[in-house]
């Protein structure tokens, strides 16, 4: 009888431990951010050397584009993003440059100067943004509301028309 109680207690404790392990493991490997998730408000340096975060952008719609200077589709879409930004005063277009060990910090700066990039550029110097957000590929564009909740995710190269269409759909009320 005493032996049965001990076995039952061990089984219950193992079940509790297994449940706790699964719950903790799920939280630590949440995966890439998706529609409905809140974008982390990570501070990064901009192209002027100032530290900024999403809280510095105040419009109801924020277009957050993740790119790298070595990514050909990223380079091709920059003129589209700039043109979209120039014609839409109610949308903040912000870009996050993914720096890697293979590319010096000067590479994106040279690129910015070369094409005359007029968009705000934030540099993910320590990789904190990329670790938190985990974009599945580049370029990746997130459409955020004023509370930084992701309303839509666009994977791949974008155009002004595509961006306007996706914003209209994501923010239709």
UniProtKB/TrEMBL annotation:
One of its GO terms (molecular function) is oxidoreductase activity. Its main location: other. Residues 33-172 form the Thioredoxin domain. InterPro entries: Redoxin (IPR013740), Thioredoxin-like_sf (IPR036249), Thioredoxin_CS (IPR017937), Thioredoxin_domain (IPR013766), Thioredoxin_ResA/DsbE_sf (IPR050553). GO terms for cellular component: cell envelope. PROSITE patterns: THIOREDOXIN_1, THIOREDOXIN_2. One of its GO terms (biological process) is cytochrome complex assembly. It is found in: Cell envelope. Pfam families: Redoxin (PF08534). Keywords: Cytochrome c-type biogenesis. This is Thioredoxin domain-containing protein.
């Amino acid at each position: 009888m005493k032996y049965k109680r001990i076995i039952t207690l061990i089984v219950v404790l193992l079940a509790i431990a297994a449940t706790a392990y699964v719950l903790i493991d799920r939280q630590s490997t949440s995966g890439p951010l998706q529609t409905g998730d809140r974008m982390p408000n990570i501070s990064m340096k901009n192209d002027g050397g100032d530290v900024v975060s999403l809280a510095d952008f105040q419009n109801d719609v924020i277009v957050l584009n993740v790119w790298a200077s070595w990514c050909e589709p990223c380079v091709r879409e920059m003129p589209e993003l700039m043109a979209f930004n120039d014609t839409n005063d109610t949308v903040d277009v912000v870009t996050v440059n993914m720096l890697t060990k293979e590319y010096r910090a000067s590479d994106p700066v040279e690129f910015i100067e070369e094409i005359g990039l007029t968009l705000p550029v934030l540099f993910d110097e320590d990789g904190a943004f990329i670790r938190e957000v985990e974009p599945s590929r580049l370029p990746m564009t997130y459409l955020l509301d004023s509370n930084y909740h992701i309303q839509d995710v666009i994977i791949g190269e974008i155009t002004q028309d595509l961006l306007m269409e996706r914003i209209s759909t994501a923010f239709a009320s």
